[in-house]
């Protein structure tokens, strides 16, 4: 063999080996640096995600304590001390069921301490409370929820936290409810979180804004007992940086090394008292699989290039698979396998920001709670999974959907007509019926839906606006008799009007924009005026009117109707006093009273205070109530009626026959007057002969039954002479309706009748 050629080949071989070695070294080093970067990023994100989850759990636990106290506070407003033994027994049982160490009820300078065994009553001066407890009591006397720092309870001899809420009576703080909760309940959450961590090396601690430990994990890297993170012998964190973070209530992530081991640490503020949660976990524990892969990669790159490449690909695949798993946990609903609301919102915000041709459809199953209770949670979950599959079949390209919570699904639809959306919803509904048949459950599954679009909306590239529009439409669909509602300018106007009404109602009451209108009540036998009904009208300063059907349902929801009803009583009494002083003959006036007002403990006293102030005989006032009051507690209602009769007031049952009317209720209620709903007369002349006779017979027997109990009967909705003749023949006492007079202002009423 030619030596020259051999040297040349050897030279090339050496050069090739050198180049391959350099290449392997470069690839190995680059790969190593790349994976170390991924390792750190993964460690940071996983620790932050875990810490946020534990933060939510702890805050939810604390909020749960406060919600429990609010529930009890509402109970105490209702119960008060009507039965003292029953009251304290309920309090004691409540404390026991919720595992509170102590329960305190403070009112009128008295402190009621309720334990599992008994209760004690002391004055505020006598009772010995820890400073932390006194501080939260003062918070709640000022109308706020109170949460204390951790302190040692000398009674139970353990660390506790105090929680308190105000008790309101007529929007004024009337008392304070406070409980001691064992710190170990929150410690258990943290210990369970630490143990449930797949690596078992997570350390969870809680500190206050001064760096003092509130709760320490038993699984710690620092065993020395100390009261502050600043007092530890090992200095692994920059104290000035940590002080700045705690002072500014910021999140903070960093790493440190201890005993040759790298740790990740993340501080996150809680909502209460400047408390902080921080979690520590070894980097190797978070990214154990990636660390192993790096070691294998280093070994393989030092031996063979191909094996190195395979390992790198394998590592990439493993990393990618790990990220897919994390993505599923973060963005996939565990029950249905559909997107969750977080992922849906993220996609929708990106898409809607680029085009305004999208709509959001929110779907709910009507009476889903009934399905859950009757057929069981397992079958209800199966129904939701089945519904998710059906929706997935209905979704087009560039459209998305998610399962939000309970029975709610949200769909992002693109360029679909109204008819297409309605057909899609009906198709989903029909296929859900097939699910019911599969399980031999003959239950009609019905959906209701709100569809949000940008109609009448200025900002047409805003997902939040689109979603809010859908929610408005959904609420309308839930409360209405029809199941599918599209957002439109009318709904937008309704929403704006609702906001306007709620923002102006108290000022309007103060400025007397609510006016009393009167509608005459006529004696059907003599044709003479026998009384009137007071009806409210909202006439604004500029002369425009907001109609009753626009504000009364809203007032019934937000409770403002109670104030308005008493206002109407006062205005009527004021006018009756004017008529007396002018020498005019008084007529009885009927005034509607809401359920919320009727059950107030001071209701009758407030009424009497008004009639006494204007020196009006209570018999001139007829209080109109709805039958729904009797459904809840007829005995309690009758007791209120008895007290009203003792004071001289008359009571009328309004709109009888408009909904579910019970003859049993009519027989048991102690009323003076029965108002038959206008629906009995509405369109009666247009009915078939047989149906018209049935309608007449019903009215006839109602009137006869009322007369047998000495109850005066009033028919509403008299609009024609024929109506009047018919009711007169049936023996009805009083007629009311447009045939006689529509609701008119007091001034017009005086001119016409007085």
From TrEMBL:
Highest taxon of the lineage: Bacteria
Family matches, as Pfam families: dCache_1, EAL, GGDEF
InterPro entries (alphabetical): Cyclic-di-GMP_PDE-like, dCache_1, EAL_dom, EAL_sf, GGDEF_dom, Nucleotide_cyclase, Rev_trsase/Diguanyl_cyclase
GO MF annotation list: cyclic-guanylate-specific phosphodiesterase activity
Sequence intervals crossing the membrane: 12-35, 299-319
All copies of domain EAL, residue ranges: 498-754
Membrane-topology annotation of the record: Multi-pass membrane protein
The entry's keywords: Cell membrane, Membrane, Transmembrane, Transmembrane helix
Cellular component terms per the entry's GO annotation: plasma membrane
Residue ranges constituting the GGDEF domain according to the UniProt record: 356-490
UniProt-annotated location(s): Cell membrane
Entries under CDD domains matching the protein: EAL (cd01948), GGDEF (cd01949)
The protein, known as: EAL domain-containing protein
